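Justification of computing resources. Each target in the renewal requires a structure prediction run like the one illustrated here; the chain below, 677 residues long, is used simply to show the kind of job we budget for.
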Amino acid sequence: MLLFDQLNKGDRPLRVVAWGVLGGLALLLIGLWKVQVLSGEQYRERQESQSFRTVRVPAMRGKILDRAGRELAGNTPRYQLDLYLDELRPQFEVEYKQRRAALVAAKRATNALTSESMFEWLTARFRKPRSGPGLNRAEIEMISRASRFAAVSNTVAEVSRRLRVPLTLSEPALHQHYLTKRALPLTLIANCSPSQVALITEQSWNLPGVELELVPVRRYPHNRLASHVVGHLRRDDDYDEEEGRFDYRMRDFRGAMGLEAAFDRELRGQAGARSILVNSAGYRHRQGEEFLALPQAGLNLITTLDLDLQIAVEKALSSVRGDERGAVVVLDPNNGDVLALASAPDFDPTEFLDGVSEERWTNFFLAEPATPMMNRATYGQYAPGSTFKIIDVLALLENGVSPTEIFTVDPDPARPGRGAYYLGRRKIEDTAPPGDYDLRRAFVRSSNSYFIDHGLRLGWDRLLSTGLAFGFGQRTGIRIPEEKSGNFPNVDQVKERGWTAGNLANVCIGQEITVTPLQLAVAVSAVANGGKVFWPRLVDRIEPQDPLSATSTVRVKPGQFRSEINARPRHFNLVRAAMRDDVLDDEGTGKTARIEGFEICGKTGTAEIKGNGRKDKVTWFASYAPYEAPRYVVIVMVESGGSGGGTCAPVARQIYEFLHHRELGRTPGLVAVGGTP
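Resulting structure tokens:
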């Protein structure tokens, strides 16, 4: 060979280089032999003991916005302090060895004390020592669990000491995390304060496994505002409707109420997938992480709500007493758009992000009579009281009753200055004084006697068919899950229930039937616009967060007809005029809602609630404005109120003041108005 020929020529430098090359090749061959032969089995076992796991990574949730694009629910970055258990394995081993040695020593001592004789004890001293008593599987598992808990507790205690905040560690929770999600971090602090973040970053912590991570979290910038409409999220790490299976799931949330629940699929987006390499013990290898699919952000939900009006509505409702239980609905009568929807008492949706204790859930969120989780605007079912006389008037006019026909209300001997209606032996009290009434005055003074007498002559069929045409007894179709249909029977159901003339008398004045505030708002809208019953629209469109996205915007068409009331226009005009007079007339029950330069049309109502040993009132003010060109429908309902005119009409007045001043280019503050008894 050429190499050996050169060596034989006696060139000394060349020999040195040649022998160096040969030595290097020899070392390389020895190394390869060691890796492939001697250590081959070891590396093969290590490779077999490692595998990949797929982690579900939640997407950025879409925003919920008002009609002008202002945020009702969004996302904000939040720092959380995590602990990776794989970094604590050396501590686990140290704790394990110490606890194992202590247990073995204890077992030896126990065995020595239980020897049968002194002879056996003496002979044992001269025997060759054995490895000691063995440990069974249960004892090994016990030591392992205690060792892990002790090591993690030490780290948690050190974090607590450095941050000067109390931190607790649950042994069952740690064990569950170790068994099921060992490769994922254990969260120590879900929401670090700015001072804590500064302290951690400034001190450059070197605690093994402790890491500060930035995660997106749901944000409700206005806290309690529109909480029943927007809804809230609940922790749901195991939820999975995307294609494919995941070994682990990162912390995730699911809509539990309101729009967050109704449009959860659109808002949550498409989860991504990350691959991590884990060993046979279930710990991760950081260098083996990679994204298999990036998360796709959720879609934004643009609602029909008006943020400024919503603020004004909730402020007006809170002026009742401060511990009010009620609801307000504001609709556009020309297309059914929901401009504001409030329910009181409300709640803070942020509270659900870190979980609510069972005690808090039972003693606050479900506590009666407040029940702050109930959306009273759509889920609460209440007797409409005298607001149902709006339906009475239209039914009477459509069935031939003359608006100028006079009816005389009899006096009530037991209540001087008040009227009464006698149905057989039953006396029905009237809030109106005795005297002569035509339809307009009976409506303005809210005479029970007038509407009971005419309703009895009208009969079940014609009265109920009018109410059903407005949508009573049926859900409105608003796009939130918390909605009830109310209780408004048809003629067949009346027969099944065995209802009599006494029940019909109650229905004429808004008793024994129930509606939701939203249903009443839809009905008043139909009166204001001349008979068009709309499906209320709460969502305007659904669009991608990225304006350059290829995903198309989905729009919800406004002004979708549900039905049309087949009534004469002049009869609608008479109903609207009577509602206007209820506010403008000094005898009107709704005069406390009056505003100069802004004609409001309304009807008050007060209904009694009896049952389960409880007696209460539900007070109403159903209205629209302005009279000539209706643009707003405002429904106010307050539980345990004094009267519709004294409690609810002043709330509506504050809302109309805001609307009127805004149309004039002003931005007034709302002034609380006290009710009259």
